[in-house]
Amino acid sequence: MADRNVVLIEKKGNIATIMVNRPDKLNALNAEVRVGVAMALEQLRQDDDVRVAIITGAGDKAFIAGADIAEFEGKSGVEGYHYIQTGDVYSAVERFPKPTIAMINGFCLGGGCEVALACDIRIASDKAKLGQPEINLGLIPGGGGTQRLPRLVGQGHAMRLIYTGDAIDAASAEKIGLVDEVVPQDELKGRVMELATKIAEKSPAALQATKESIRAAWQMPLDQGLRFEKAWFGLLFSTQDMHEGVSAFLEKRKPEFRGR
Ligand code: COA
């Protein structure tokens, strides 16, 4: 059983925030945190009131400064292999069926950057620093960095970041598409909540269809992806929300999506 204190959940209306809470270790991902985040995601998945999840780190210094390096010490090759196979929090974040926003409030390194990469949208404070420093430990990213980073920023930027291990500032990260928006540190929470609130007002089924379809573009050839998109498009006609959206437009009023 995970120590719940290392991962906090805060709910406000339809928005839930998962906060990694080890500020004294810059929110490094140890086994307890990985289990705690996975449990939090499962809880929020089952909670119909929750329409958007935000992931962030406690304190004003770090989002997540990486996997907990102390857990690497003394491990054999086989143990290292099992370590990275178990508790794949990165894929758990990616598979979460509702929209996710990484609220990057500081150091976002290694496994932290990989958690952010697995989120749908990344909003960073102007104080944030991002990178994949595993090379400095004689390692490579093991939480999807070699796969998701080049898909997001292109091979050259991904190679440079992973080869050098350099951390880049938020403005540079925005320039290469690693983050979607940069805001002053003291405005970060307000901006992320504003965005989350706007998304949470939409039809949950249409949000899920959007996520599944865009994620499919990473996995499928174009013609299969286009068919997948069309299947979701058709399926949404079976939701009350779609008919509410169409009626509201024709009646010139604001739609009220109930998640049915
Ligand atoms: N794993 C384990 N502990 C970590 C950690 C990590 N990834 N990142 C930070 N910490 C711990 C430090 O060991 C320190 O603990 P202590 O106070 O018990 O000594 C505490 O968090 C504060 O970090 P500190 O290094 O003192 O802060 P800083 O401001 O001087 O430096 C960083 C910040 C992020 C540059 C530095 O902590 C760092 O390089 N961390 C490792 C980043 C990394 O390589 N991540 C990828 C891992 S695969």
Please outline the helices and strands.
Elements: E1 7-12, E2 15-20, H1 31-46, E3 52-57, E4 62-64, H2 77-85, H3 89-95, E5 100-104, E6 107-109, H4 111-118, E7 121-125, E8 129-131, H5 145-153, H6 155-164, E9 168-169, H7 170-175, E10 181-183, H8 188-200, H9 204-219, H10 222-235, H11 240-250
Parallel strand pairs: 2-3, 3-5, 4-6, 5-7, 6-8, 7-10
Antiparallel strand pairs: 1-2, 8-9
Helix pairs in contact: 3-4, 4-5, 5-6, 9-10
Bound molecules: coenzyme A.
Salient structural properties:
260 residues; alpha/beta; 2 domains; 11 helices; 16% strand; binds coenzyme A
How is this structure best described in words?
- With 260 residues, the protein is an alpha/beta fold.
- It folds into 2 domains: 198 residues, 2-enoyl-CoA Hydratase, Chain A, domain 1 (Alpha-Beta Complex), CATH 3.90.226; 47 residues, Lyase 2-enoyl-coa Hydratase, Chain  A, domain 2 (Orthogonal Bundle).
- Helices cover 46% and strands 16% of the residues.
- It has 11 helices and 10 strands.
- The protein has a 6-stranded mixed beta sheet with strand order 1-2-3-5-7-10, with helices on both faces. A 4-stranded mixed beta sheet has the order 4-6-8-9.
- Helix 9 runs antiparallel to helix 10.
- The model has no long low-confidence stretch (mean pLDDT 96).
- It binds coenzyme A.
- The site of coenzyme A has 16 residues, from strand 6.
